Amino acid sequence: MTSRVLTLFCFACVVTARLLADDQVPQSALPSPQIRIGTIAISGSLRLRGEGWNWFLHDSRAQYGYGQSLLRLGISQRRSRFDWKLELEQPALFGLPRDATVPGTGEALGLGATYFAANGNQRNAAAVFLKQGYISFKGFGSNGSHLRLGRFEFADGLEATPPDETLAALKRDRLAQRLIGDADFATVGRSFDGLKLSYDRGLANFTFLGARPTEGVYQADGLREMDVDVLYGAYTREIPAPLATSELRLFAMSYHDGRSVLKVDNRPLDARQLDTANIRIETFGGHFVSAWNTPVGKWDALLWGALQTGRWGVLDHRASTVDVELGWHPPHIWGKPWLRASAFRGSGDNHPEDLKHETFFQMLPDSRLYARIPFYNFLNTMDFTGQLIMQLHPRLTLHSQIHKVKLTEKKDLWYLGTGAFQNSSFGYEGISAGGRGGLANYVDASVQYRTTQHLQTTFYAGVLSGKAAMTNRMQGRKGGYASIELLYHF
Questions:
Q1: Could you report how far apart the first and last alpha carbons of the chain are, in Å?
Q2: Which of 47, 114, 276, 298 has the most crowded Cβ, counting Cβ within 10 A?
Q3: Is there a contact between 333 and 298 (Cβ–Cβ < 8 Å)?
Q4: pLDDT at 443 over 60
């Protein structure tokens, strides 16, 4: 790690050690404290994070660290019939690696290389811009309904909040931002310029979004819009029962990418260079999630899937994806363990020479929610996952996962990235799998401690064993990623 990241790590450890000794810390969830001047509220947050990578690809390896900070400051007002908010964001990156790429090909060795390239090959980058600026008109039809206009954040899957804690956690951690998200894990994230309509009727919610995403995510400057259009509509309904609570969502999404950038897919380079037609994709899908009590504990199940059609430039686009998950809360055990297992498949393209594109396209997600070591996404991927979540203390949460990740089609690419983030590059990187399907196995753990009412600290570490698509070595190769983060709300 660089000296700056080590300094940040030591600072975080000292602060955490001091605050762990404070027995007067409230044991509630982290709030969003505000300074109020009459009906005007001032709020903000500061996030500091140090990241370390030990990463490889084929015969190349890079070991490095870098730091980042994110300051957000907002002013807002809530009235009976409307509310508004203005929020500025000031991200900064420092100590980015200048040599974390494969010699000759320029393929990235970890996210440090992605940040470096996205910011004009600068080791340090910073900006200030308008993150959110909107007005919401509310109260028509029902108290929860609203029409929002301007620049705002949005995440698909969170259109309604279920009363059951298990379902609420599943929606936040296992359903949100699969197709549209604010990419909050990245230093900058993304916003949307447009309108959002949310209408509640009894146990049902109708949501509509028409917007254009901003630049950002890995690029420090997140002010400008991209030449990308998104239309999204969803119907969500709570389904209560005596011993179970369930929810159903049906959604449709239209995505148009009019940027003049080289598409990333499994066709030869000359074919892609000749394809200057726009991408137009329609996605139709839904989820069903349920939690129920039994004498041997609480169980939950999740089913999510989608079908896609449209045009991938000059190609017909046809793709699909499905995810099945099952969870169990054993009763009366210390730490309140939550055991979960899931199987995911995103379609790939096994015929690069035909006139079809069959790789499932994840439009504008936050991929890190589902790939905690962010080296893959939903494109041409199968992911078999086991999870253990424990509440070791009211303020201390342990979350560990184990993954087996494979490529769906060997003649397709291994895709990395989290969707469009600037007008000058596609947003996804594709690496040839060389006709091999094994990608990696990895295990990780994170510890989150709510140190005070205003501050939480998160440690994360993941180790990986790369398989045939990442290395030619029969025994595989090892890599890893670690981070420490402080998040302060005021």
A1: 30
A2: 114
A3: no
A4: yes
